[in-house]
Amino acid sequence: MKQLQNSINHTSFLIADILESSLYVKDFFEFLDYDIDNHKVQSNLLANAIDDPRIFSTDITFKNLYYKYPMSDRFALKDVSLNIKKKEKVAIVGDNGSGKVR
Higher pLDDT residue, 76 or 45? Predict the structure, then answer.
């Protein structure tokens, strides 16, 4: 009986984890479908920004970027250089699978 209870608990946690992850997957696919030319934008903020020709009109370049989290002595990013071309979609993912999307 105890083993059955443990299995049910474990299955419940897995289902909850899958449901939570599906929220992030939805956001990811919305990001991939993001299209400035066709104005397929969900956020009012981004929709207003598209009307401004200065936004999203040039490449984004980072040179020799360093970053460490507050209260940490270790660099999370060290001497990173990156060029993102206009209208290019980029996802930056860390070791644990979490990431920052642009």
Answer: 76
Residues 87, 83: Cα–Cα separation, whole Å: 12
* pLDDT attached to residue 101: 47
Residue 94 has pLDDT above 80, yes or no: no
Q: Which runs of E-coded beta strand occur in 1-102?
A: 60-67, 77-84, 91-93, 99-101
Evaluate whether 20 touches 11 at the Cβ level (below 8 Å): no
pTM: 0.37
Cβ–Cβ under 8 Å, residues 96 and 84: no
Torsion of CA 30, 69, 62, 24, to 10 degrees: -10
Residues shown for the chain: 102
Can you tell me whether residue 4 is helix, strand or coil?
A: helix
